[in-house]
């Protein structure tokens, strides 16, 4: 098995290091790591220290010897998914599976047909949950670079983001629409790819028109219609394979 990942604010360059606090407690009391086992201390921004456990002390102190530092390069092309807000906890599910698959950034989107509304304290709590989910899923999937979860965007802000992308697409379920297959789209090998995943009610005609002006064309994934909480994961997997990032 690959070594478990624990998050640190600053990656140690070498020598002895003590992992404490929440991460230390998880390592000692939950994972019950013992001397001689391997671990990785990651900052979530692309740097990680490979280490060997020396001892577990108390309930929340893991003493390790750092044996080396690993740096994960910025992904190319970078994949961002603009995720319309799903109902209930399906937003966290979407973030979790996209993180495990390999997405680089997630943008919460308050689409016109979203039932869920992020406002005030509720919106702040929901965003915090998405970010915590990305962090935990990044650890679980042994990533050194966790996805960035942006502040929620309006449709106008999403349009501005799409205009900066090297490839922009709106996942669209209408088989009668003038949309091509994402599996056949010409993709860049560098730069940025931005995908828009609409809500369960679909992307409105007005939103499609605004996104088209920003250069985002509609594309379909396949013959079946995926839920908003799974479409981003499926599309990310497809793009990772097609761009060579899964080679």
Automatic annotation (TrEMBL):
Ribosomal RNA small subunit methyltransferase E methyltransferase domain span: 74-239
Q: Which InterPro entries match?
A: Alpha/beta_knot_MTases, PUA-like_sf, RsmE, RsmE_MTase_dom, RsmE_PUA-like, tRNA_m1G_MTases_N
Which top-level enzyme class is recorded in the Swiss-Prot or TrEMBL entry?
Answer: transferase
Q: Does the keyword Transferase apply?
A: yes
Which locations, inside or outside the cell, does it occupy? Answer: Cytoplasm
SUPFAM superfamilies registered for this protein in UniProt: alpha/beta knot, PUA domain-like
Q: Which reaction does it catalyse?
A: uridine(1498) in 16S rRNA + S-adenosyl-L-methionine = N(3)-methyluridine(1498) in 16S rRNA + S-adenosyl-L-homocysteine + H(+)
Q: What does the UniProt keyword field contain? A: Cytoplasm, Methyltransferase, rRNA processing, S-adenosyl-L-methionine, Transferase
Residue ranges occupied by any Ribosomal RNA small subunit methyltransferase E PUA-like domain in the UniProt entry: 23-66
GO CC terms of this entry:
cytoplasm
Secretion signal span: none
Enzyme Commission code? 2.1.1.193
State any GO BP term from the record.
rRNA base methylation
Entry annotated with the keyword rRNA processing: yes
Task: Output the CDD domains linked to this UniProt entry.
Answer: RsmE-like (cd18084)
Regarding protein family, the annotation reads: Belongs to the RNA methyltransferase RsmE family.
- Annotated function: Specifically methylates the N3 position of the uracil ring of uridine 1498 (m3U1498) in 16S rRNA. Acts on the fully assembled 30S ribosomal subunit.
PANTHER family per record: 16S RRNA (URACIL(1498)-N(3))-METHYLTRANSFERASE, RIBOSOMAL RNA SMALL SUBUNIT METHYLTRANSFERASE E
| Protein name stated in the entry | Ribosomal RNA small subunit methyltransferase E
Origin organism is Streptomyces finlayi
